[in-house]
Specification:
The chain is mainly α and 141 residues long. The protein is built from seven helices and no strands. The chain is 65% helix and 0% strand. The N and C termini lie far apart (72 Å).
């Protein structure tokens, strides 16, 4: 029996891991989006591929991560790898579902953190520009 992957829950998991609020994701997705729509989206078991691609671009996470991430299988892999690393053999357990990691996770975290900071800086700059425009519209007293 194949277990169904909950894509909306995966979007929520990755968004939260990145420390991004629903409002921020909605802002990045465009004018048609708001916090409520993101909340509803995260309850959907399946999400249309074009929308997943758009979310993937914003969060900088591959579409396949949303489509394939299974929390239970991840826990099993972590447990097996941890137990294998402590077995004294110096190697990880050979698990049929184990996938070789082709990138350094620490480098990826640093990259995501830098991108998050850049996003917040862009948002602050846009806020300052908007405030300047609003101040121009308000007549001086």
């Amino acid at each position: 029996m194949e277990k169904k992957i909950h894509e909306g829950r995966n979007v929520k998991r990755f968004r939260e891991m990145l420390g991004i609020k629903q409002e921020t994701l909605a802002l990045e997705l465009g004018d048609d989006w708001n916090q409520k729509k993101i909340s509803i989206l995260e309850t959907k078991e399946t999400i249309d591929v074009p929308l997943l691609q758009q979310i993937s671009t914003v969060l900088k996470i591959p579409v396949e991560a949303f489509q394939n991430f299974d929390e239970e299988q991840a826990i099993v892999n972590i447990q097996n790898n941890y137990e294998g690393a402590n077995s004294g053999s110096g190697t990880l357990n050979n698990n049929a579902s184990y996938v070789d990691c082709t990138f350094n996770p620490i480098d990826k975290l640093v990259q995501l953190h830098e991108e998050k900071i850049a996003l917040y800086e862009r948002m602050l700059k846009e806020k300052d520009e908007m405030m300047a425009e609003l101040n121009k519209l308000i007549p001086a007293k």
